[in-house]
Amino acid sequence: MVTSHYDDDALTSLLTRQSVEADERLLQHVETCERCQTRLEELSCGDLSWDEVATLLADCEDGPSDDTRDDWLTSRLLEPSEYPQSQGRFARYEIMEMLGRGGMGVVMRGYDTSLNRHSAVKVLVPELASSAAARQRFSREARSAAAVVHPHVVAIHTVDEHNGLPYLVMPVLEGNSVEVRVRESGPLPPLEAVRIAAQVAGGLAAAHEQGLVHRDIKPANILLGNGVERVQITDFGLARAIDDAHMTRSGVIAGTPQYMSPEQAHGDAIDHRSDLFSLGSLMYFMLTGRSPFRAETTMGVLNRIANDTPRSLRSINPDVPDWLEDIVSKLLQKRPDVRFQTAAEVSELLDGWLAHLQQPATIAPPQMSQPTDFEQRRNLLTGAALGLLAWCGWFVFGGNSVSGKSEDTPGPEDGAAAVAVVPAAENDEDQEPPVTGLPDDQRIKWSAHLGSTTMRAPVISGGQVYVGTNNENAYIKRYPKNVDLGVLLCFRQSDGEFLWQHSNPKTRTGREHDWPMMGVTSRPCVEGDRLWYITNRAEIVCLDTAGFRDGENDGPVTDEPHSGLQEADIIWRLDMMKDLGVRPHNVSTCTIAVWQDRLFAVTGNGVGESHAPPVATAPSFLALDKHSGKVLWRDNSPGQNVLHGQWGSPTVIDRGADTQIVFPGGDGWLYSFSPFAAADGKAQLLWKFDCNHKESVWKLGGQGTRNNLLHGPTLFDNRLYIATGQDPEHGSGQGRVLCLEIDGAGDVSSHLVYNESNPKRVIAHRRTQACRKEDSDFTVANEASALVWSFEQQDVNNDGELDIEERMSRSLSTISIKDDLLFVSDIEGVLHCLDRNTGRQHWGYDTFSGVYSTPQIIGDLIYLGTEDGEILVFRAHADRSIAAPGGKPVQTLTCESSVNASVMADGLNLFYATKNRLIAIEPVKQD
Amino acid sequence: MNGPETRESLLASLNGTAHGGDSKTGGSGDSSVRRRDGWEEFTTIYRPLIYRVAAAKGLQHADAEDLTQDVLLVVRRSLDSYDNTKASFRSWLYSITRNLVINHLTRRRDPAGSGDSRIAQLISQQPGRADTATLFRLEYRRACFQRAAEQVQAEFHDDTWQAFWQTAVQQQSIGSVASRLGKSNGAVRVARSRVLGRLRQVVDLQSGGFEPD
Description:
Chain A is built from 19 helices and 46 strands.
């Protein structure tokens, strides 16, 4: 023995070589020498601490998978068994499968051979069972829980120990937890949330009566019976038993603390009223899909629980009635003594409301005492002060620093409407020309400022140009630019002089319906001296194109509060939210269609902000009298199958007596109606067509394959053309271009869906997936199919792979057609040129930018605006080398901001609308 | 093995993806595989990272996924602007991605937006830039470590790995882990040190000397 310890080099070799190469003698020494171990650890850590290592690797999704850990656990828990399909034996149970695994316990499905019964066996994991105190506490709590017998509390059959491991046995429950239900299908309707909460409160009341506090009420612990309306609370008392055991050992709080009460978060003594706070958080989750106190770290959550007032329920989900918001906020009071005092009281109150909701005519709503203003304010103040404390580590008296949250400031003159005040942006007048790169034979004729978000192409009619935008440019003095409005601007076509504007304050209902700064995104429809469009307030308005400049106030609406020359003269107005119960998902992008004396519109009725299903009774499609705005007929065919919003526009197929109006539905179907109602006043559906594959799936946030229709179909030579897509915020995905015949009747989709249980009957359309193979659904080609062709992708250059130019992504584009060429853009920024007759792709061109606009054919050229602020001009030709010679557009114009609106022309001049500028281009006169 | 040339080839392969393959020059099966791998390597690191930062900033699952997708798309489109005379590809990629994430979390998005809860949250949260940058840096380090862990786990015997994982990550006591694994305390300490040493080595190798600031 030369030295008693190894030097750093030797130790380092242990760290850098892999296990097979390790020096046995070196290993043997270090494993028995504490000094070398300590040095080895120092070397291995470098500048890291073990705590940092834990942080860096904790929650490692790529770490050991659950499966590995399950195997590892079961191998230590179970004894070998000969029983068929058994994974092993635990006590008297044949373990058939692992049902779940928490940090602290495992749940297995066990078969009790003596009782011939399947049960859930829950075992405290071995590392915790090593403490006698923990074992005792687990058993004691489990026994008290077993004593609670109540329909809404999961029964515990047995509490015992096996091989030193405490375990309990419960029935195996079919069905999902509230957590899974909400995660899978979104927030629950208030009625359903109240029903569940009432049963939970009932179960809690029974347990509290026995002196047992649950301590871990959360969505994962509330089980919903399969098909049965029964709700059951599981894991009574165990959470605490386990947490105690865990905390004693590690000082770490197990699991998610998001549903803890403030007193729990603070580590204070708790009583049954702690469960009531958690019940409040549970209700909040059910109604909004999120827990009220979310933060990025455990400490963050605990701080928020202690200090924050959660965002109001109604601001997230306007379906929540006031009384329900009051109940939840009383449950979520920080101080136990201002909450409801017993679960029984809550249960009774919720039952009362439930009864009233089910029979509103005969049962009166229950009474609830409100928390006083004083109590609320005190809580708020305490919260704010504690918040400061948490931030600074000091107790600071804020003086007058505790100010109320800024409320919606009433508009300057519009008492009824909420006008959101936004910070004034800097005035960025620049000297650069608004567009550069014009060819020699063109020049800027005039340009006019718009707001800051202009999405839709200008409309040129009768010597005037109309554009929807927001109020960032403040043309009218009484509305300074910091007042957010949806604005329709009217300019003189010859010189760009601003004539008048229609001003629409934001809706009081907020973002879900009317996004800040979004402006007006419905492109107007103009006929003669009348203009129709849909405001950001979901009103269909009819305006006089002359405004008040004709010296007349045309009506029936004659009570406009302002009738100056720069104001809009309203003829009539239909408030779809108030009068028809429409709840739009975001501002309308519908262009109203006019035919004879009738107008046709897509209402925009859509899902709620938290993607609650749309209002089923509100119409999706309308026919109106164009002179009066009177509703002639309404239809809600997409009903609750609306995937998201309804942003498309109707298309008129004008064929005299056989005229059709084709509406794009929010369910991805096209619906063709007669312009006239039937004798009973109902809309007359002629045919309908599903633009999605039957197997496609709708998923929240754009993950799925089922798409929406964002525009109206294009009619050309007695066929319809349309592209599918999604809200651009959903990003990219597979899209599709379709070509349809228009003479069908009934369901003219390319396929019909049947189920093997009745292979003769077509099954009803389903919102998220029409054909579920796993449920024995199958499709059959429809003999009445109207589909001529569809394009999704095509290996045009035959190189064996699908390049981005060869795939049709989701589209925000209308179809443009010239002769036999069809042009469409997609959100990936590819301009596609297809053969109109076959759907075969001639070529694709990648612009390397997002494209929100429609390619516009003007003469022999195609104009395409991009998000990067370019206008690319191609030749309308099937040969890519002629369309884009040398792989480049024939013109590339550069604008100062995004071009999301399509380029328009009046026969002589071109009109470009960038996000914030309207530019008229004229030809340079040849001498 | 992960020298600068690998990074350049990653860049080249990413560019291949970004341009969707030029039918005239590319197009062989081999290059398409390389392209795909390049993008996959890039997304292995950054996709979970961006998602986590977004989720930590309070975005819901679907919203965080959206943001991740958006950022990756923009990065993919920005590859042309990389100038290899100014910065290493890795640090360029890091800064551009970080800045995009900060921008996406901070700025108000205005194109044809929907009223989805995502934006409402973005606006109400208004995360501080420094705050997000720190979080991004931490998550980058985590992504590196977790990627390395995947590789390193396969190199060690399961017991050695468990000794490390249970003590260092699950933070269980050395004694309890030793007795469960049937090893001495010393053996557990050596085992966890060896895994950590190797982990740090792999992280260094993979980062090619790049340390986020």
